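Here's what a typical entry looks like (Cytochrome c family protein):
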Amino acid sequence: MFDTMTFTKIAGSLCGALLIFLLGKWAAEELYHTGGHGGEQAYVIDTGVEEVDEDAVEIPFAEVLASADAGAGARVFRQCSACHKLEAGENGVGPYLHGIVGRDVGAAEGYAAYSGALSEVAEVWTAENLNGFLENPRGWAPGTSMGYNGLRSVEDRANLIAYLDSVDD
């Protein structure tokens, strides 16, 4: 029934069909990608409105803080709770955060492990200073002993600051 010649013909026809399929795919790709896609537009319609990059528009932090949600900040604080406590005088790996907004930098009672880098940058923990520190601790205060990488989202930072401000009477 099947001899070597029949098997060779079947295998050859499958290989030929595959070759035709691959050549057809290559030809279709070449036809589709002709014309230099991605170049400048030949004709631009002037609408009188400049295009604005949404990421480039920066909302002032005070506006973001004014609309912050302390409840959402409580969820963000879970990341901080590994090293910081909210109760006054209860220090963990880091100083307690009760009353942090408006407190002098490096003034947590009973906490002596400050690196000194913070007091060189600011005197008081204002909302703006906390925002800068929470965004990038090592960039805002080079030499700080805080090992956290920071919060990238401005909304998360504002929510966290609103939460910290709400827990201290």
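DSSP finds seven helices and no strands in the chain.

More examples are in the samples folder.
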